[in-house]
Structure formats: structure tokens, C-alpha cells
Write a structure and sequence with these properties.
The chain is mostly helical. The chain is built from 14 helices and no strands.
Amino acid sequence: MNNKKETEALKMFFSDEEIFHQSNDSKNKSLQQLLDIAFNKLTVEQKQTEFPNHFWSEKRYGFERSSKYMKLNPEEKNKALRYLTEQNLALSYFIEKSGHNYGAKMILLAKNQDEKFLYSLFAAEEAVHQREFMNHMWFTPNANDHWHPMLNVLGEVMREGERNTLIYVVQVLLEGFGMSFYSGLGDTCDYAPMKNVYARILQDEARHHGSGVILANFYDVNKYEKEQIFEFTKKFITALQSASWFIKALENSNGPMSEQEKKIFLSDINYEETLSNRRKRLKDMLTKVDSWGLIGMLEKDKVI
């Protein structure tokens, strides 16, 4: 089979429902007990039942610079910070949950046994990572309350992407973003068990990203794959800029904000600088694999 036929044949297994929303409960108690024993040996932190209100303080987000935030009462501040803790954990959880599907697809698309070894390890590590996050959640992430725009792009590329497209977009770009995201969360986390989890996961993510760079530089990409890589990269970077967690956090705790209030708030926390730094990091990641002008195409479209 050629790549396009393989991709088409696998689409039915990669709906958003399968990738992100498949139930964590098989109702099979014996199987769950077996998995619990295995995961207890593989995770760095065991399941918790009591948690602080939030894992990250306002300093993580620069909220201490916002006059709007500083006027909130303690209860409203705690509500905003708890909301953002849930969003951080939920995005981490969904990224790892999608990793099972990515590993499974890439095992099937592997060109040799070495690549099958790689993606078998990849999928197993993502399973452990997902359990690490589940061990520290008091909620079950759902699409209504905990969705990030980048997950729409991730689901689409998982379904539609050719093999080389997946390597570029998921392993190089997404895993690269994940490393930066997790590193920042780990460095600023005030909850020691979660800090340990991010430190452990970062070691695996570095290998996932690094192997993607190796494979992207090893294989030539055809015209169709280049077009796919460009389009999905553009969508992914645009989605990363469009999340509105911070605004929602304040509105959930203190009520709707006017457009002027939103503008002042984002200016106070230097949000545009945050987005600019994010674009720069993504560009640096793509530099590692850009032998055919991808960055130039993105710059021409004013994506980066």
C-alpha cells in the first residue's frame, strides 16, 4: 500500500471520540487491578485523594501585574487559579491520551523494526504519562470545560496526516511545544508531587521530540507532504495563539469583562510578549528540520 491508501484505511480509527474522549473505565475490575499494579511500579507518584486549591500561583501567569486581578477578593482569586490549574492538567492529559493513538498509528506505518521498537516505547510511555496526570486530578477532563483549540488541529492531523506529516507536526512541533509547556509548568509548580511528575515526563518527551528530528531529517518529503506539513503547522501555531484561558479565568470568578478591560488586562500581564516568545520557540524547533523552506513559507504567511 502507498502512504495515501494507508492513511485513508486508518482514518476510521482516529475520530476525535477515539483519540480524546474514549472512556477510561472498562468496567472490567480484574483488568483494572492488573493495570493498577503495573502502573504503581511505573509511575513516580501514586494516586492522590487530597489536593491544594491550585498547583500554580498568580506568578505563573503574571497576574500580580494586573490591577484587575489584584482587586479580586481571596475567594475569587482562588477560583481563577483553580480554573487555570484544571486547564493546565487537562491539556497535559489530552496530549498524553492522544499519544497512545499516535504511537499505534506509527507502529502500523513503521518502515522497519527499529521504528516499531521506537513507537512501541513511545505508546507505552504516553500511557504512563496519562496515568501520572490521572493520579493528580480531582476531575475528569471534558470537551465542554477543558478544551484547547490546538486539540482540534491535533485530532485532524492524526486522522489526515501522512506518515512524514505526522513526524513533523506531532513529534517535532507538538512534542517540542510540549517540552516547553511542561518545563514551564514544572518550574513554576508549587505542588511537589506534580513537580516530580513533570520532571520525569520531560525526560521521555525529549526523546520523543529528538527521535522526530532524527526521522524528519532522514526521510525526504514529497510535494503533498510538504503542503500538509505547511497547512497543519500554520493551523497549529494559529491555534496556540487563540486560547483565552486567562480571560475566562477572571470572568468565571468575577463576571464578564468589557473589551477595554480585556485589552488592559492582557497588556498588564504582557500577554503579547508571551505569544511572541512562544512563536520564537516554535520557529527554533522547526529550524532543526527545515531543509525545504518551511519557515520561509510560514513567514510569508505571517504565521511566525
